[in-house]
Design goal:
Six copies of one chain form a homohexamer. Chain A contains three helices and six strands; from the N terminus they run ββααββαββ. Chain A has a single domain, classed as Molybdopterin cofactor biosynthesis C (MoaC) domain (Alpha-Beta Plaits, 2-Layer Sandwich), CATH 3.30.70.640. Chain A is an alpha+beta fold. Helix content of chain A is 33%, strand content 33%. In chain A, helix 2 crosses helix 3. A five-stranded antiparallel sheet of chain A has the order 3-4-2-5-6, covered by helices on one side. Chains A and B meet through strand 1, helix 2, helix 3 and strand 5 of A and strand 1, helix 2, helix 3 and strand 5 of B. Strand 5 of chain E pairs antiparallel with strand 5 of chain F.
Chain lengths: 144, 144, 144, 144, 144, 144
């Protein structure tokens, strides 16, 4: 097991965007839209949990490098059968922030799950994936 | 925002099982099976990361109660188009461990992603869901 | 240095309430009320940060016991010269939750500070104190 | 909710100093001076807790950037009606360390509270504020 | 990998004591005794770091159960060729606290090392071992 | 207590290597070699725990600077009376990584202890020491 040495890589501006979808019942979507859950405003909580998870990523993913983060944002969009989650993370470091963006999507989705679960335990988190990555030696990656 | 009061609930044995699938290329599956990745044994690392994530769940999910955990296990099964992940978590507390099991699945999947990503950035994490829950007042929940 | 032994104390329901005030300029209060800060909804973020800080208290306060928390809530009230913060924490343990309630007040206040500081660096956090404590052997404590 | 992007800011030497006062009874001040508390040396513990809290700040303050810290110090001065706390934090980064200094003051004060509380639950933490900030684009800030 | 299920074990009072020795030069022992190190009082810092490490043990040792701790204490004794460290940890849980006591010894020793290392990089940590364990089903263990 | 200011030091490539030995019974060595422990593969778990502990070092060692890590690796070698542990850590920062390497050795050893302890509570961790350090102003240090 090793955290590979990135000491000889250059510090460059790097961006990663990840997306995912939390599928849920129509009733749960209505509860989210009305923002009247017992525990509080689930959309704000989920966005915040996503941003905070960016900072915990090296604690969760064993071989991930601890790096400085220059910016992070989580956006949620309510669709017809669930909530679309997008996380954008930026750094100026020797390694990228794909893992941070993917972790943010998962944490935001699980926070929504936690706040809605008393009424809907059947929710599914699907299609968590990297949709954009740029700024490192391996070039730009794009995926729908 | 509040962490709802569970002080009057009874301490009972509770179990939660969550599952998910990390879809990947055939080449990545071969690399996993051969266990010769640069960073180390990805399957062992993913299982361990899943168990450790159970203990970090209250730090990640804002309104989740911090509770004692009596047992946790993560299992991985290599299929034809990805890795099936299952996490089982047990407690004897006033609240359940659904969030812990779901978090373990995500952390195990993201650890696999991290160790395989240099060769395959297109992997998808799908169908993360609760498949079993028992032991609390709301009764037993089962989902395929 | 020692974390005093509480092993022979009884597990009882315990509650602690702490309060504090973040004094700020009229302009900052207006910005809070309008909820249009660059970083996001500061009131929701502060309440969430307060609840999450309850769970980090044993990491911050060196000799504080790590215990289960059964409920936590942070409330904010906008006054004429600042924001009044109140945190209520509940447990069923061998030791109280005063430190958790006080830590929640500080974390909520500092989160407001962080989100408003680009326009107002002169804010003061004052009168952080315990206002209620009940449930332990030392009896009930009340302070205005 | 977003952690604002600081990637285009320059790395410069930045310093922040925060102060606060923990008001307490004369009897508590005597106990502090004599350094004979059951739990150990409260003044040393408080200073250490303050320095350690600098490193936990991005975990506590949701939208605070995780950055490298080049130095941190907490000083305590026993006055006639309480303990004056001062924290100085230094960095060479793209963003300042005001939140780190303020968090250190709160953690040091709460640690004193924790070690004295069995004899004095009425202590107040007051006047937590930024007293100096320099090194960033917004210039130098001073407050008494 | 699994955290073994202890849900059916009984909650009993359990104690563990661990010991270790940090061997160092005579000059370092003199510096410790005089308590005039640049960074501060190393003996107080080491004791505190040991107690705090008890609370971080489940984060460090992957398959260790997260449990409540009812008491913890670290003691240091300056000998002729080093510092003897002893850590005592108590709980009322379904599993023991050997790992917590051993982790406390290591953290206390490494904190001393950190505060003395500018003058003595050759220090050795030796004989870290469990010296007492009682309260569980496996009975009492004693080792010199 | 202070975290000394390193802001004026230069960022250079720095490496530290630490070593230690976990002495154990022949029976425990056989159990390790056969990799059939109840909890899972102890050697992989120990290496991973060591690498992860590198990232937790500033949380455990109070006055240690939080810095970026560019690489980390833990190696285990089974000898005739125990397991030899070696940890190598690399950074490009203003301060060295001795504490990170020493912490990795301790965490790896304690993880082995945890996974073997049901059959052997008498294990000893010995000779934890820095064996190499280079890249800072104080020059290169070597110790057998």
């Amino acid at each position: 097991m090793k955290m590979v040495d990135v000491g000889s890589k250059e510090k460059t501006e790097r961006v990663a965007v990840a997306r995912g979808m939390l599928r849920m019942s129509t009733e749960s979507l209505v509860r989210l839209r009305e923002r009247k859950l017992e525990k509080g405003d689930a959309l704000e909580a989920a966005k915040l949990a996503g941003v905070m998870a960016v900072k915990r990523t090296p604690d969760l993913i064993p071989l991930c490098h601890p790096i400085g983060i220059s910016g992070a944002e989580v956006q949620l969009e309510l669709g017809t059968d669930g909530v679309e989650i997008a996380a954008t993370v930026r750094t100026v470091e020797r390694t990228g922030v794909e893992m941070e963006a993917l972790t943010a999507v998962c944490a935001a989705a699980l926070t929504l799950y936690d706040m809605l679960k008393s009424g809907d335990r059947g929710m599914h988190l699907t299609d968590v994936r990297l949709t954009h990555k740029s700024g490192g030696k391996s070039g730009t990656f794009e995926q729908a």
